[in-house]
Design a protein that fits this description.
Length: 397
């Protein structure tokens, strides 16, 4: 038993010892305890996003005196917490969404995980949770995915969703940063995020309630950003729409849709296409799928050709403010080619209807640009196409 002391030392099994500062997160000290009885892996067609968990999890704790404990990979289990913990009282929680795939070589791989780690580092700093080396966390994630590799569906559009999470566990009502924490990682095999098949997503534009605001936390992946969106989402569903389209400001400019980044494709007079997405102004989450889509559209016709798009077709990609007036004006002028959403869970989803102040815009089905991006991204993720080293093998420690 380890007991922290006021002088910065600890008592270990009754013997006083000196600790030179809090211990850093160290993946090399991982203790692995495998489950005695493994669950049956459900058929891929039965998977629903986030409902099935794998056999094991990563768990590490932080104490302000001793620092990070030795990481554990252990059987998936409940977490016991003090009712006064800051996660319950002040929503001190950060998470990331990642995916693991099986490549043609049969080995598991992660898609651009370094971007998830850097975003998690920024989010943890934003709410002053205990810091850690994200490179060590990535090593832990690789170890866990290797252990759980049998859970990775080898089916197009399917993957093993990986969710690293850190929660503040300081057992006090005191209104200040949590200096105690639990860092854990869990996994869930998943199929398509939207279970509507080829049917495009419908959006209801919401301006009365906002998802984020200037100077707020919209650009960070914090749990507290999600709960306030649930009630407006219910209102959108009552009106017959799948997701909210989040607006902001007097000009009613678009930020995100649901929990995804928003893209619009507009026809140019010269036959080329403009691909627009709102800029990262602090109110929008910097999605790694968003960054990947921007890179692929810029690369089209230069270093790669997107599936079923002419090599000569120019995609003029830019980040710009998009208002509802813009959207309806492009539609009325016959220039609106397609609307699509991107995110880790859905990858790329086409948008059909958009409802706004009693009007409705029909953007059709999933357009050729969205289809091309979906095909290319999933082919890269599944190792069928190599592009700029985006996939990282789990055994590359």
């Amino acid at each position: 038993m380890t007991v922290p002391q006021a002088n910065g030392g600890v008592v270990v099994n009754g013997s006083a010892q000196v600790v030179k500062g809090p211990a850093p997160l160290d993946a090399s000290k991982t203790v692995v305890t495998l489950a005695e009885n493994l669950k049956a892996v459900p058929p891929a067609e039965e998977l629903i996003f986030g409902q099935t968990m794998t056999d094991h999890m990563v768990s590490v704790t932080y104490h302000p005196v001793t620092g990070w404990s030795n990481p554990e990979i252990k059987p998936y289990a409940n977490i016991s917490l003090d009712p006064a913990c800051s996660i319950f009282q002040y929503s001190t929680s950060v998470f990331e969404g990642m995916k693991a795939y099986v490549g043609p070589d049969g080995k598991p791989r992660l898609f651009r995980p370094e971007m998830n780690m850097q975003r998690m580092k920024r989010s943890v700093a934003r709410i002053a949770l205990p810091a850690f080396d994200v490179d060590e966390l990535l090593k832990l994630i690789k170890k866990l995915v290797a252990v759980e590799s049998r859970w990775i569906p080898n089916v197009k559009g399917h993957s093993l969703y990986v969710r690293p999470t850190i929660i503040g566990t300081r057992p006090s009502f005191g209104v200040r940063a949590s200096d105690h924490a639990i860092l854990y990682v869990i996994c869930s095999p998943t199929g398509p995020y939207f279970r509507t098949g080829p049917k495009p997503v419908s959006l209801y534009a919401v301006g009365e309630q906002v998802r984020s605001w200037p100077g707020g936390t919209g650009e960070f992946k914090l749990s507290l950003n999600y709960a306030p969106t649930f009630w407006p989402q219910q209102l959108a569903a009552e009106k017959g729409y799948d997701q909210c389209l989040w607006l902001l400001g007097e000009d009613q400019h678009i930020t995100e849709a649901g929990a995804m980044n928003f893209f619009v494709v507009v026809k140019r007079d010269d036959g080329d296409l403009d691909v627009f997405t709102p800029p990262l102004d602090g109110t929008i989450l910097p999605g790694l799928t968003r960054a990947s889509v921007l890179r692929l559209t810029v690369a089209h016709g230069e270093t790669t050709t997107l599936p079923n798009l002419a090599h000569s077709l120019k995609l003029h990609t830019s980040e710009r403010r998009i208002t509802m007036v813009d959207l309806f004006s492009w539609n009325d002028a016959g220039k609106l080619a397609e609307i699509f959403l991107v995110g880790t869970a859905a990858v790329v989803a086409g948008v059909g209807r958009v409802g706004f102040e009693g009007r409705e815009l029909d953007a059709g089905a999933m357009g050729p640009v969205a289809k091309a991006l979906y095909e290319r991204l999933t082919d890269i993720q599944e190792g069928k196409v190599e592009f700029e080293g985006w996939c990282v093998h789990v055994d590359d420690a």
